[in-house]
């Protein structure tokens, strides 16, 4: 029995005369890894920005856990439990791993148990940040290390750890492997699998068909602002998926 | 080892310079002389801490010295006119804070780059200072209650040194141990990332510039109290020194980032350098030349430190399973 986490009905987005999204219905089930594919200009970025609260839709409704919602900022979405990991990761490169995991939601405590002044609880933040990274199968010795010293895959892990810290139920990942090498891509895919095993819901935007086939459970393909295809990934291979993205037509399995 | 060099290299170099003066400049290493140097560091250090706090949020405040002069003149005018010292001090601090708040609003609301906004503020403050004084200095036998702020001492240590230590401690506490301070650092380091994490970056920038203004006001009050006078360009000499202290401070302790211990250490080193040059009989312009070289050199050096930090080997993440 699956439960609907997010449900979009008739979502539209117009920029002046240009209609980027034309009445999309999309359901995201709790615990699935849904890949959102489509060529450049198909409208997937616009759709994702709407879900993430980065821009309002021109029309349509959005239900989160059965309740109608309207996000006016990424913070609104975050409060509801929708965290977006942007392509450029939105990390502060010269701050430490622990500082990045807790950025904007730091833990504090009063010295000697006093209520004032509230000082940063660095020890607890380091310990908890380590815990989050351990859950992502990435134990790391030095939580005080600057994020700029990490590899792309490790940074992705820090960004995901932050989403975990926010207790996000839906984690949106925008092209998480676009700038990564082979080994780091494998690392990020394994992160997504870990999230899936933990029962988190992931919305993965990707151009990489092999990645989609490797980790997604379902795929939605956008074509010219509309949803053309919505189906399970099982039984698909990257070539067939690529063909579907190009044509917008579902294709029977090769005999 | 290279970490130690990056964090303390400049401090070691400074120590060598001090040792050189100790060896060749008569009286330099005497306790009395060093106490005077430390005391005189206070004005420059407090002004520099303000500059460092604004710079932490990636904003420049080039108006600190002229705002300090204006605040000193405002305070002096009131004292001269017989106002209660407490009122005069509050007005001095208020002028500084007010200028800082205006700078913050100009930068974050009107979107004028701080380089330009504070340069404009500097010119206006200077003009207002001359307007209030009509070009002459306020000098007089001012009440001890007021002059004691700068001239008095506590436990045998000059009040100026206590002010410097107290303000330095509070600024350090703010940046290193409070959420607000960390949000200021994050704003300066990665504006967009901080904003996406829900940090109100505009507010952090306004705070940084307001504190720079407030500390210019504090410097003004202490200067006027110590000298029993106020002139419309009394803080001008401290301007380049304050900037140099912050930039030189960025080459140590926390390389590449404005930091309070580095700023304090650098401020003392700069004052000691000036003092040593005077004791050696160097011409008056030697200080300016040295100061300019230090400003350029420290930025070049801290950029190198940053480059090195970026290219050190990747840390070792182990992938389990």
Overall number of strands of chain B: 4
Largest sheet of chain A: 6 strands, mixed
Number of helices of chain A: 8
CATH class membership of the largest domain in chain A: Alpha Beta
Summed over residues and divided by their number, the pLDDT of chain B gives a mean of: 88
SSE-based structural type of chain A: alpha/beta
CATH architecture of the largest domain in chain A: 3-Layer(aba) Sandwich
**What is the name of the CATH superfamily of the largest domain in chain A?**
P-loop containing nucleotide triphosphate hydrolases
Helix content of chain A: 25-40%
Query: What is the correct CATH architecture of chain B?
Result: Orthogonal Bundle
Keywords (chain A): ATP-binding, Nucleotide-binding
Protein name (chain A): Sugar ABC transporter ATP-binding protein
GO molecular function (chain A): ATP binding
Domain ABC transporter (chain A): 6-249
Task: Provide an overview of this structure.
The complex is a heterodimer of chains A (255) and B (321). By secondary structure, chain A is of the alpha/beta class. Chain A is 32% helix and 27% strand. A six-stranded mixed β-sheet of chain A has the order 6-9-10-3-11-12, with helices on both faces. In chain A, strands 2-1-4-5 form a four-stranded antiparallel β-sheet, with helices on one face. A two-stranded antiparallel sheet of chain A has the order 7-8. In chain A, a hairpin with a 2-residue loop joins strand 4 and strand 5. In chain A, helix 5 (152-165) packs parallel to helix 6 (182-197) and helix 7 crosses helix 8 (238-247). The two termini of chain A are 32 Å apart. The model of chain A has no long low-confidence stretch (mean pLDDT 86). Chain B is mainly alpha-helical and 321 residues long. Chain B has one domain (29-307): Orthogonal Bundle (ABC transporter involved in vitamin B12 uptake, BtuC). In chain B, the strands form two sheets. Chain B has a two-stranded antiparallel ribbon. In chain B, helix 3 (64-80) runs antiparallel to helix 4 (85-108) and helix 6 packs across helix 10. The radius of gyration of chain B is 20 Å and the shape is globular. Mean pLDDT of chain B is 88; it is low at 309-321. The interface between A and B is medium-sized, with 38 and 31 residues. Chain A: Residues 6-249 form the ABC transporter domain. Chain A: Keywords: ATP-binding, Nucleotide-binding. Chain A: One of its GO terms (molecular function) is ATP binding. Chain A: Pfam families: ABC_tran.
């Amino acid at each position: 029995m699956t439960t609907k986490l997010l449900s979009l009905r008739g979502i539209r987005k117009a920029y002046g005369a240009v209609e980027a999204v034309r009445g999309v219905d999309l359901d995201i089930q709790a615990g699935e890894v849904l890949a959102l594919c489509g060529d450049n200009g198909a409208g997937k970025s616009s759709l994702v920005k709407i879900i993430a609260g980065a821009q309002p839709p021109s029309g349509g409704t959005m239900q989160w856990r059965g309740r109608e919602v309207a996000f006016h900022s990424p913070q609104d979405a975050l409060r509801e439990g929708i965290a977006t990991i942007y392509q450029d990761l939105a990390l502060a490169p010269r701050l430490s791993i622990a500082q990045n995991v807790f950025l904007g939601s730091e833990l504090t405590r009063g010295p000697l148990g006093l209520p004032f002044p509230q000082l940063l609880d660095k020890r607890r933040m380091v310990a908890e940040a380590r815990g989050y990274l351990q859950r992502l199968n990435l134990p790391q010795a030095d939580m005080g290390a600057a994020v700029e010293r990490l590899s792309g895959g490790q940074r992705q892990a820090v960004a995901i750890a932050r989403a975990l810290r926010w207790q996000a139920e839906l984690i949106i990942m925008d092209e998480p492997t676009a700038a990564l090498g082979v080994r780091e891509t494998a690392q990020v895919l394994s992160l997504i699998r870990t999230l899936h095993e933990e029962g988190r819901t992931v919305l993965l935007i990707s151009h990489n068909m092999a990645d989609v086939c490797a980790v997604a459970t379902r795929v939605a393909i956008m074509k010219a602002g509309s949803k053309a295809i919505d189906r399970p990934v099982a039984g698909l291979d990257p070539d067939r998926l690529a063909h579907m993205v190009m044509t917008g037509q579902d294709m029977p399995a090769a005999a | 080892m290279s970490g130690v060099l990056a964090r303390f290299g400049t401090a070691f170099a400074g120590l060598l310079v001090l040792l050189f003066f100790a060896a060749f400049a008569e009286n330099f290493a005497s306790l009395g002389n060093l106490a005077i140097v430390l005391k005189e560091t206070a004005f420059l250090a407090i002004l520099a801490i303000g500059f460092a706090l604004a710079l932490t949020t990636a904003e420049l405040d080039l108006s600190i010295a002229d705002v300090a002069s204006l605040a000193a003149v405002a305070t002096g005018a009131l004292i001269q006119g017989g106002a209660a010292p407490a009122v005069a001090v509050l007005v001095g601090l208020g002028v500084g804070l007010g200028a800082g708040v205006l700078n913050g609003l100009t930068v974050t609301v009107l979107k004028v780059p701080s380089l330009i906004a504070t340069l404009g503020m500097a010119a206006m403050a200077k003009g207002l200072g001359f307007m209030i004084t009509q070009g002459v200095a306020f000098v007089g036998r001012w009440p001890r209650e007021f002059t004691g702020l700068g001239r008095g001492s506590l436990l045998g240590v000059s009040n100026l040194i206590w002010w410097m230590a107290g303000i330095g401690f509070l600024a350090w506490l703010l940046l290193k141990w409070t959420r607000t301070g960390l949000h200021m650092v994050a704003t300066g380091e990665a504006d967009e990332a901080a904003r996406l994490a829900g940090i109100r970056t505009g507010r952090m920038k306004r705070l940084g510039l307001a504190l720079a203004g407030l500390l210019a006001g504090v410097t003004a009050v202490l200067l006027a109290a110590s000298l029993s006078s106020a002139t419309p360009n009394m803080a001008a000499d401290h301007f380049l020194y304050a900037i140099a202290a912050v930039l030189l401070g960025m080459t140590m302790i926390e390389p590449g980032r404005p930091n309070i211990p580095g700023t304090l250490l650098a401020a003392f080193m700069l004052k000691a350098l000036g003092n040593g040059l005077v004791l050696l009989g160097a011409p008056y312009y030697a200080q300016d030349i040295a100061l300019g070289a230090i400003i350029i050199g420290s930025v070049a050096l801290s950029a190198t430190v940053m480059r090195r930090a970026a290219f050190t080997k990747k840390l070792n993440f182990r992938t389990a399973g």
